[in-house]
Every structure is written in C-alpha cells, then in structure tokens.
Design goal:
heterodimer; A: about 625 residues; alpha/beta; 12-stranded antiparallel beta sheet; 14 helices; elongated; B: about 210 residues; 5-stranded mixed beta sheet; about 60% helix
C-alpha cells in the first residue's frame, strides 16, 4: 500500500527589526532546538528555509552539526534570498541579485546549493521563473491559498512555466505554532483523506517559527507531536524532503499562478491587486522610488567590491517586511520607517560623495515614475524633492548628516485611488493654503478651514537655475483667490534654494495680483515634521523661553516671531526656522499620542495685497547637527 | 508626455557646469534644454559640459539646436563640450563633429595635452580601421622606429664629417699647388738671363724626346 507523503518545512522568520545581538542569540537557540529535534527523530526527513543573513549569524559549531544532519540526507535547504526580497515591488535585477547572493551564501556555508526557492509571503511573480531556472532551483513553494480548490484537492505538486522556463511548484499549508491543530493525527488524516488525486497524496506543512521571541511557548512542541504521530503511523505516512517528491512522481499538471501576495504569512486569501492596494497608503511609494533610484545609481557604477557592499546594504531595505502595512513593523510603523529612510539616505549620501560634485546639484527626472517630472536639489548636507505638478510641495527633505527624512510623516487615511501622494491629504511640506483671516489653529488642524485659493495640489510651472555655488527651483502659478462671492486672479511664485554646501534650505513666497482689487486672507504654509525623538520625550519646539516639549499631545500657537527652533535630541538634529518678517506659527501633533506620526508646523501670516503691489515672505530652514542621545540600534 | 521623457541633471565640477541627459531626446524637449543652457549662461557659467551618453534617441532638430547654442555661448566667450560615444548620438551629431568639441568619455575630457591627443587619435583610428595595437607591441614598434631614425641621423652625421674632411683636404692641396706654381715661376724668372747668355743649357729641352 502506498504511503501518503508528508513534507515538513521548518520556517524560522522575523517581521520586525531586531537588534543584531538579540537576533544572533535567537538564531542559535533555533539551531539548538533543530538539532535536538533531528537527533530525537533520526528517521524523519526535514526541510529548512532560512534567509542568508540569518544563516550568516548562526554559530559555526551549530552549523557544522546541522551539516552532519544534512550529510545523512535528513535535511534539505531552501532559500528565499539573502534577505526576503519583495519581488513584486523591486526591480527584477535587484531581486535576482538578492536571491543569487543568498543561494551562493547557502552553498558556501552548507556545502550544497539550495534545492528550492520560497518567495516571501508567497509573493509570486511569473516573470521570476526564468531567473529561478537560471539559478538552478528545482522547485518553488507557494501557499496553497494561491491554488484553486480543485487543484488543492488533488494533493500533489505542479509545474509552472513562463517564456519557456519551467519550475515545479509545491502548495504548502502555512501555520503558526499558536494556530497549529491540537490533535495532529486526526488533522493529518482529515487533510489527506479528502484528496481527489489517484496517486500518492502529498501534504506540505510550512511551519512558521517566530525568532527573537524567547518568552513564547516552545514552537517545537507541536513539531515533536507531529513527528511522533508520523513515526507512530509509519505504515500510513512517510516524511520526505521536497527533492525526494520530485523523484517519486511527475507533476500532476500545469498551474499558472497570478502575481499575488499574502499580507500575513499564514493568510488564506491572497491579495491579487496588491500593488494598487499598497499604493493607497502614504510613504510606501516614496520609499520604493528611493530604493529604485539607488538601485539605478548602483547599476550605472558598474561592479566593484565597493558597489557590491552597497548593494548588500540595499538588500535589507528591499526586505518585504519594510513594505507591508502592520502596526509592529513596515512603513506604517514610525520607527521602522525611520530605519528604512536612514539606510536609504546613508546609501544615497555615500554615492553622492563618490561623485565629487560641488556647489549643489539639481536633477529633473521622473522620480515618482508617474509620467511627470520632479525637481531634486541636493548639496552635501541636504536633499530636497519637489513635485511641481501637485502644488509645488516638498515630499521629501533629507538631512543627510543625520540620515533623517524630516518629511516622512505618514497619514493614516488611505488614498481613494492608488497614488504616491494625495494633494491635501498626504502630509508633505510647503503645502500652501489660502484661508480666512480669522481661521484658528484648531479649525485648521481639524481640516475644517475654508480654502480660498486653488494652489494646494495644483500644477506649477517651474524653472531651475544653477550658479557656481547655488541651485534654485522657481515655481510659478497663476491661480485665483475667492473674496466673498467672487474669484480674483492671483499669481504665486515660490522659490527654493540651496547655497553651496550649507545645510540651509531657503524659501521665498511672493504674491502678486493683476487686478486693482485689494485682497486679504491668511496664508498658511504647512510643514509636517517627522521627529523620531518625540515619542521618547527628546524633541521640543521653542521660541525664546516659550516652548512645547510634549509633542505627542501638546499644541501651541505662537505669534509674531521670526525665529523658531525645533530640536530632536534623539537623532541629533536642530531645525531653525528663520523668517524675514514676523509670522505666526502653529504647532500640533499629527495622530494620537500612542501612534505618533509627526508634528505639524504651520507658518501663517495675514496677507493684504493692495492693487498690484506684491507681497512676499522670505525665510530659511537651517539644519544643525547636535549630539545624538539615542542611537538607532544596529538592527536588521 | 514625450516632452517630459528626458531626465536632466545639472551639477558643478570644478569651474564647469555639467548637464547629464538620459532617456529619449525628442524635438519637443530641445527648446527646454536650450532655455536651461541660456539660463546657465545668464547665471555666469561659461564652461558647460553636456553628457549625452545615456541618451537613447535624438530628434532630427536637436543637433542644430545645439549648434545654435554653441554659437551663442562662444559669442559670450564660453565653450560647450559634449561627451558621448554611443551610436545613436554619434550618428545624429556626425555632420557637426568638426564644429563641436566631442569627447568619448569623462576621462578623456579630464585629461589634456599631448597624451590626451594621442589617446583620442588612437580611439579614432581604431574605430575607423578596427586595428588596435597592444601596449607592448606599440612600445616595441616605437623603439624600432626611433632606432631607425637615430641610425639614419648618425649615418648622415658621419657622412657630413667625411665630406667636411675631404673638402678641407682639397682646399689644402689647392693652396699648395698655387704656392708651388708661384715658386716655380719665380725660380724660372731668375734662371732666364743665364739661359739667354748661353751659360746654362736648357736641360729641359735636352731631355725632351
């Protein structure tokens, strides 16, 4: 009688960023548990999926013992890459390099190339099949959620093909220890009983083992019970490696999975239009475009040891866990987002130093990959990204000396349609509002201020200027302002400039009217700031002796000032706002206290334009480095 | 939009302003680039480098736009230099190669002087003939050529010296002949009266056959 086949895959994973020292201890604990398990059940076969950077951190003695298990054919390695690359969100060449690096590392550390590939979160991309074929993988595993019920019930493995390249596909049942069935034997029997296939039935179990959680119940408990159940019913079940299944029988047929993703590792329903879904969130699109920009820059530098090292650092940014929406990790988590931008800006700054330019650089490119150009101004300490099509706002402002993007403020509101930024909703800097003269801070903060102008989110014309020591971007729009029941034409000109290698972003606003009618309104420029020190109580806003130190819940409205200091001692940054004429500044938190996303700084001023006389506001943001009180942990 | 397909980077390196262009360069983008370069000129920049190696397509009006710009910039005592060697751009700018300063890469722009000229010539000849010499062979051929020239020069020098010696010898003998002729004439004039008196036979006439 033919025995049913059970394939046990051990899949240690982590989602959130973990300090390296703690991660190493967790990996070693896992290795010790694995060795104990394989020694207690020497007759069973095991499969192990481990990212390259985790295997690198395993103790060499433990690794050599695992190799002994592998030598007696009791263990098979699978690979997901050096990290867990997000295939659907990354350039193909970068993903290929990530997976190749992981496979090479596994080969050098284990003595044998990995036999199979496991896309993280079952993020399947058909275009990756030729890459897998080229790298020598014999099979890939995917969550059974990606297979239609009719194919799942056959309980076999399948073949898939793309442009002539083929690879075998194993559907796996993913489970966490806390969701694992209590009665293993009954569950095994039920899972395999319903199969409609006529050949040997196959059940693949992807057992997810959370790393870095030492105080949780031992995840190996269920594995022991499963191993005991299989040994006890050795007449009915046999445990094999994935590779052995390939030799037992041919694939049951062909299956062409569509590009998909599981938002959670053990989801039972795939997200098909996951790209649309992800782009309804803020910040994720900007992070992805930065990653692609750096990948393009690295690819244009050829290949050298230095570039390979930089690319390896980019693999960690490419990790799928940085790009999924979750509370404990991913782009919605402020600390995780700060870490990602820290790495991206660090890489970008390194590339900038290699270029040896001076006096600033201005680039006009389709950075957002949406068909329209952005102006990107950069000098040594600062880099500014300006979207002239959506209100001439600044959607990213990097203080390179501290690897901070001060505009990394996420809005919890999702966009109605997939977009990188949503004018008026996305919290970008230098968003311009023309509101009633008597508008209060609370009204503005609540989003109830009456908008009199049409400049927020509207397209501006732009020109760029470069001298030997400075770069400037001039944005001009002729819009209108409502006064009573009527609208009057109004021209806004705003200029951003960087001078030399100074960490100063200068800005100029100028209003001019072509009609002889006088206009009065309040002009408010919104500057949402991302201050990682705020949740730690290490950030403040101050003007002389007046200030605000509780940025999580406190609000303040300061009037008639020309200088304001925003300090983030955690990250070692001081931001000084200086204006030529007195302005009012409103400061309030964005988001609830337990989910800090940023601090809003609104520069507002009453504007009266009489006749054709222009009105202007000149100011600058000076960035200064101070001592770092809270270093970002070396985490990955 | 086609007009927005081209990426532009403007940066300073030393005293020059570099414009790096990448992507398709359609005719609609030409006025925009012209305006940017004129703005750079107005801002006081005189040394402009246009890097077009990453340009994937060149519209038919683009080279003539750059030619106009070149005239304008040169009129203000500036210079525009180009960097490219890809086929697309090279073909588009081929009719104007002799009017523009075109460099194949950044290194050749940075290097000046005689050696840079040699390298440029090497590349040009290689592209035309397909023949390239390795460095050791080139050095060996150079040594052989120099050897030939040195040998020739030495031979010429030797011959010159010999000619000079012979000329000096001829000169000396000519002088001696003249001096001897004068002496003979003087002695003959002293003996003539004795011959006329018949006291001395003319021995020269006696020995004559």
């Amino acid at each position: 009688m033919k025995r049913n086949v059970v394939v046990l895959l051990l899949h240690p994973y982590k989602n959130a960023l973990v300090p390296v020292a703690r991660l190493k201890a967790a990996v070693d604990r896992f290795a010790e548990s694995l060795l104990k398990l394989t020694n207690d059940f020497p007759g069973l076969r095991w499969n192990l999926l481990l990212a390259g950077y985790l295997l690198e951190r395993m103790d060499s003695i433990l690794l050599s013992k695992i190799r002994e298990v592998q030598k007696r054919d009791a263990l098979e390695w699978l690979c997901c890459g050096y990290t867990e690359p997000f295939l659907g969100f990354s350039p193909l060449s970068l993903s290929e390099e990530n997976v190749r690096t992981g496979a090479d590392l596994l080969t050098s550390l284990t003595g044998a190339p990995p036999a199979g590939y496991a896309p993280p979160f079952s993020n399947w991309e058909p275009s990756f099949v030729p890459v897998l074929d080229g790298l020598g993988f014999r099979y890939a595993i995917l969550s059974e959620a990606l297979f239609p019920a009719s194919l799942r019930s056959i309980r076999s493995f399948w073949a898939t093909e793309h442009l002539g390249a083929t690879v075998n596909l194993f559907p796996v049942h993913s489970m966490h220890p806390y969701a694992a069935p209590q009665h293993v034997e009954a569950w095994l029997e039920t899972s395999l009983a319903g199969g409609t296939g006529t050949g040997v039935k196959l059940l693949c179990i992807d057992y997810l083992i959370p790393l870095a959680e030492a105080d949780q119940p031992d995840p190996f408990d269920w594995l022991r019970r499963a191993a005991q159940a299989i040994e006890k019913n050795a007449i009915v079940y046999q445990s094999v490696r994935f590779d052995e299944c390939l030799a037992m029988s041919p694939p049951a047929g062909l299956h062409y999975p569509q590009p998909s993703l599981l938002i959670s590792r053990s989801d039972e329903r795939p997200a098909r239009e996951f790209l649309d879904y992800l782009h309804t969130y803020d910040q994720i699109g900007i992070m992805q475009r930065r990653m692609m920009e750096i990948d393009e820059a690295l690819s244009s530098r050829g290949s050298s040891r230095h570039i390979s090292e930089l690319r390896k650092r980019l693999f960690f940014v490419q990790d799928i866990n940085r790009f999924l929406p979750a509370r404990t990790h991913g782009f919605l988590n402020a600390a995780d987002r700060a870490w990602t931008f820290d790495r991206l800006i660090g890489l970008d700054t390194q590339l900038h130093h290699d270029e040896k330019t001076s006096g600033g650089q201005i680039r006009i490119a389709d950075f957002l990959k949406n068909g329209s150009k952005c102006a990107v101004m950069a000098n040594g300490p600062l880099k500014v990204y300006i979207d002239h099509r959506n209100g001439g706002h600044v959607f990213e402002l990097d203080f390179r000396s501290r690897n901070i993007n001060v505009c990394a403020v996420a809005s919890p509101e999702r966009h109605e349609i997939p977009r990188i930024t949503m004018p008026g909703k996305t919290r970008t800097a230098f968003t311009d509002h023309l509101i009633g003269e008597d508008t209060l801070m609370e009204t503005f903060a609540a989003g109830h201020a009456l908008e009199l102008g049409d400049f927020c989110g509207a397209p501006f014309d732009y020109t760029v200027k470069k001298t030997a020591s400075s770069v400037r971007c001039v944005l001009v729009r002729t819009g209108s302002v409502s006064q009573g029941d009527k609208s009057f034409p109004l021209t806004m000109e705003k200029v951003f400039g960087l001078v030399g290698d100074a960490a100063i972003l200068s800005f100029v606003y100028k209003f001019s009217s072509h009609s002889l009618v006088s206009h009065s309104f309040r002009f408010a420029v919104s500057l949402p700031l991302f201050l990682p020190g705020a949740p730690l109580g290490e950030a403040h806003v101050s003007h002389g002796r007046v200030g605000l130190s509780d940025l999580l819940a406190g609000r303040t409205a300061l009037e008639g000032l020309t200088r304001l200091i925003v300090g983030d001692h955690a990250r070692g940054m001081h931001l000084v706002l200086v204006t030529q004429k007195p302005v009012d500044v409103w400061c309030y938190p964005l988001g609830p206290a337990d989910d800090y996303q940023g601090t809003a700084l609104v520069i507002s001023s009453r504007v009266t334009i009489e006749g054709t006389a222009p009105w202007s506001l000149i100011g600058r943001l000076e960035f200064k480095r101070t001592g770092v009180k809270v270093k970002l942990p070396d985490a990955c | 939009m086609r007009a927005e397909a081209l990426d532009i980077t403007i940066e300073s390196r030393g005293s020059a302003v570099w414009l790096r262009l990448s992507g398709p360069f359609h005719d609609e983008q030409a006025p925009n680039i012209k305006e940017k370069i004129l703005t750079l000129l107005l801002d006081g920049n005189r040394d402009i480098v246009v890097h077009m190696e990453q340009v994937t397509f060149v519209g038919p009006l683009v080279p003539s736009t750059f030619l106009e710009l070149l005239n304008t910039v040169r009129g203000k005592e500036g210079e525009v230099r180009f960097i490219f060697r890809n086929d697309t751009v090279s073909r588009a700018f081929a009719p104007f190669r002799n009017l523009m300063a075109i460099y194949p890469d950044e290194q050749s722009l940075a290097a000046g002087g005689f050696m840079a000229g040699i390298r440029r010539t090497t590349r040009t000849l290689f592209r035309r003939t397909g023949v390239r010499l390795s460095r050791p062979v080139a050095v060996f051929l150079l040594i052989v050529l120099c050897g030939w020239f040195l040998t020739l020069a030495y031979t010429i020098r030797l011959q010159g010296r010999r000619i000079r010696e012979q000329a000096a010898e001829i000169n000396r003998l000519t002088q001696e002949e003249k001096a001897a002729a004068i002496e003979i004439e003087r002695l003959a004039s002293r003996l003539k009266p004795l011959e006329q008196l018949g006291l001395l036979p003319d021995t020269a006439k006696g020995r004559a056959p």
